[in-house]
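My main concern about presentation is that the manuscript never shows what a single data entry looks like. An entry of this sort, consisting of the sequence and the corresponding backbone structure tokens, reads as follows:
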Amino acid sequence: MLGATLDLPTYLTRLNGEISRLNQVDIQKWAELVYEAWQKGRFVFIIGNGGSGTTASHMAEDLGKSTLRPEDLKDESKQRLKVLSLTDNNGWLLAVGNDCGYDQVFVQQLMNYGSKGDLLIAISGSGNSPNILAAVDWANRHGLTTFGLTGYGGGKLKAMQQHGLHVDLADMGMVESIHLCVFHWVLNDVYARINREGRYATAERGTQDKK
């Protein structure tokens, strides 16, 4: 726990340094994959445990609502991003966990909802959560695109995922904070692409409306 040993100025300096070490190509790839899912009308599924589970919920809510302009939210003609956090259905989680085991809580949902061409965003600080690995394995074998968010050494997830962003740091709190911090750039980038705003106001006009 870095915050237990570092004072606040030192902690913030360390946080800034860890963010500066991230692979920016991987962050851009994350945004591209989400945008491509919107273009093609594919689903984005997000999974995680504990703090990463609430991050999955946060990401799904933001991607579902905040990729549209506020004035367009009631416009039924607007194409929307299909996004679902598999952490949010208590009935599913409890039933599958009780009947099949906790390692099955995400993969069993994917078997119902997932299809070839969908995107699975899998969050695991350690990279070794069994329920995350089971879902990514299934997704890889059934034509979904997988993107992992990891910390520490990356664990088995880093080796298994097709794409991903790794935070090379052995502190769960800071790893989780960085995942969510960087996500908000991804969200803003996808919003700008969909709505042709900011640096995308004049770019990609020939491709923005592809389904």
In short: Confidence is low (pLDDT under 50) at residues 205-211. The beta strands are 43-47, 82-85, 119-124, 145-150, 163-166.
